[in-house]
Amino acid sequence: MSNTSPFARRGVPLTVPHGDVLGTYDSYPDAQQVVDRLAKADFPIAKLAIVGNGLTSVEIVTRKRSWNRAALSGVLSGAWLGIFLGLFFSLLSPTFTWQLFAAAVFIGAALGLFLQLASYAIQRRNRDFESMTQVVAANYQIILEPGYLTRAQDVLARNP
């Protein structure tokens, strides 16, 4: 059985890269900046990887959910759908009027309102807040294939 995924790039294994550590950085942008410097100096960057260590899932609670927020969100998203459909139909039909456009927006808003309130009523039992979830790493290492460490260090020393 193969250990590759249909979503993986051809030739890239689904394992953690092993090799020489060029450096360890506190943030991804710091590691990315070093890789950028190497790329600008024509270093073969296909021979390296940025590896996040100590991964942690962080969920930041953004706000409390309420019927009012659900209703407003539903009306707005439904109205956008109505605007899109109204514009689409106005392009297809030479007899399309502004009254039909307004009706499309109104129907979209009403449908969005209904669906969002129904969804909120079902989900409210389990979760009454909104949040954002992100996976963050304690640090990021640039790992090079064996034999490229000295070359990368020389490039970085020449191009500060």
What ranges have pLDDT less than 50 throughout 5 or more consecutive residues?
Answer: 1-8
Shape: elongated
Supply the helix-strand structural class: alpha+beta
- Average pLDDT level: 86
Amount of beta strand? 15-25%
Backbone CA Rg? 26 Å
- Give me the count of strands: 5
What is the makeup of the main sheet?
A: 3 strands, antiparallel
Please give the share of residues in helix: 40-55%
Q: Please, how many domains?
A: 2
- The H-and-E topology, N to C, reads as EHEEHHEEH
- Count of individual helical segments: 4
Q: What is the spatial order of strands in the main beta sheet?
A: 1-5-2
What is the rounded distance between the termini?
Answer: 46 Å
What does this structure look like?
The chain has helices at residues 28-40, 67-92, 98-123, 149-158, and strands at 20-25, 48-53, 56-64, 129-136, 139-144. The chain has 160 residues and is α+β, with helices and mostly antiparallel strands. It folds into 2 domains: 1-55 and 137-160, no CATH class; 67-133, no CATH class. The strands form 2 sheets. A 3-stranded antiparallel β-sheet has the order 1-5-2, covered by helices on one side. Strands 3-4 form a two-stranded antiparallel ribbon. Helix 2 packs antiparallel against helix 3. The radius of gyration is 26 Å and the shape is elongated. The model is unreliable at 1-8 (pLDDT under 50). Residues 21-105 form the General stress protein 17M-like domain.
